[in-house]
Write a structure and sequence with these properties.
Strand content: 5-15%
Number of strands: 11
Number of helices: 13
Shape: globular
Mean pLDDT: 85
Strand order of the largest sheet: 6-5-4-3-2-1-9
Order of helices and strands: HHHEHEHEEHEHEEEHHEEEHHHH
Radius of gyration: 22 Å
Structural class: alpha/beta
Low-confidence stretches: 1-21
Length: 366
């Protein structure tokens, strides 16, 4: 090798050290995420096998979203569950726990949602049984926060609480709106924060519409002050985003601020700069909905996804998500190339998880 070739191939020691540090930082970060590290690697290789060898977009589930009820005590304009396209009856406590038992055989992570989960009289029993009886490692519960004081027992079982909030300005004119219920939600958030100990176990999830852009910015600042995790997505209208937001300068400035705070580590914000950019600016992505399957109160499982309104099976009847997905694929075909029209956080994350696992892992850890 000539001197010129040696110089062309020379990498400074400092640069090599930086590369080593970057890889070590990534590995250390993955270790800090235990016990989910093994799960992530296992799922990554299983899904790589399915995608590359079996040539299918039906990937293994990472976490299941389980609707314990369709009922809700509020009437938010953007809610898709107050009049669901496919309705199912709630099971009793024993039946619900049987559904959760089937889910636990295929994943250790569950998101309990509704409707409003705290309207169920047995929600505390369900949460405690899922967490400590069935031993879900991650159990998140999504709530509007209005009834937490009546169901405080759930705080003993959840690993994280997601409270939906779209403004900090109270407005009592519409009794079924979140702004009308704001004082009670704030009281209950203070109780939850004290009980859970770590404020980062609470995520404040907001839906951005044109009317509340300024309120969302105030809400993000408040989350930073409280130590809560901030999460945002745009409102969906019949499963579609409001593309007019992209022409709204205030919306674009808000998105810039959210991404900058996440990138600079100034406060806890759900997602990574790239997933937030895709989610809030409606970039193209490829959805893998079976990574985050949705299960309705009676155990019905959607395939390939809830927006397409196709139920492929029932966990109590068919026994497993794997069997239901296989039956769904045979009946409805593989996951269609829908061009990522449903801009929901889990859908966007599934794209990066499958297509850029290492980049996603690095972004989350940094």
């Amino acid at each position: 090798m000539t001197d010129m070739e040696k110089r062309a191939n020379f990498v400074p020691v400092a640069a090599l050290d930086k590369r080593r540090r970057t890889k070590m930082d990534l590995l250390r970060g993955l270790v800090r995420q235990a016990p989910f590290v093994g799960k992530n690697f296992s799922l990554y290789f299983r899904n790589a096998w399915r995608r590359k060898i079996l040539r299918t977009n039906v990937v293994a589930p990472y976490a299941v979203t389980f609707y314990v009820t369709h009922k809700c005590n509020l009437d938010c304009s953007y809610c898709t569950q107050k009049e669901p396209d496919v309705f199912s009856e709630e099971l009793g406590t024993a039946g619900t726990l049987q559904v959760l038992k089937r889910i636990r055989k295929e994943t250790d992570s569950i998101v309990i949602t509704g409707g409003e989960p705290t309207l169920r009289s047995d929600i505390e029993e369900i949460v405690m049984a899922a967490r400590f009886g069935l031993k879900f490692r991650s159990l998140l519960l999504i709530t509007n926060g209005t009834l937490l004081d009546r169901k405080r027992g759930i705080l003993n079982g959840v690993t994280g609480l997601i409270v939906s909030l779209d403004a900090l300005q109270a407005d009592p004119t519409n009794s079924l709106s979140k702004p009308a219920a704001l004082p009670k939600v704030m009281e209950n958030l203070a109780v939850a924060k004290a009980r859970l100990g770590d404020p980062r176990r609470i995520t404040i999830s907001t839906v951005i519409e044109e009317w509340n852009i300024a309120e969302v910015e105030r809400l993000m600042d408040w989350c930073g002050e409280q130590g809560f995790v901030f999460a945002a997505q745009s409102a969906q209208n019949d499963k579609m985003p409001n593309l007019a937001l992209l022409k709204n300068a205030k919306y674009q400035a808000l998105v810039d601020k959210i991404i900058a705070r996440r990138r600079d580590g100034k406060q806890a914000i759900n997602g990574t700069p790239r997933t937030i950019e895709t989610l809030l600016r409606f970039r193209d992505f490829q959805c893998y909905p079976t990574m985050f399957p949705r299960v309705y109160p009676n155990g019905d499982v959607f395939y390939p996804c809830e927006p397409l309104r196709k139920v492929a099976g029932n966990l109590l009847r068919d026994g497993s998500l794997r069997r239901i997905f296989a039956a769904g694929k045979e009946k409805y075909g593989d996951i269609p190339p829908c061009q990522g029209i449903c801009y929901l956080f889990g859908n966007v994350v599934s794209h990066y998880y499958v297509n850029d696992f290492w980049g996603l892992a690095g972004d989350f850890i940094r």
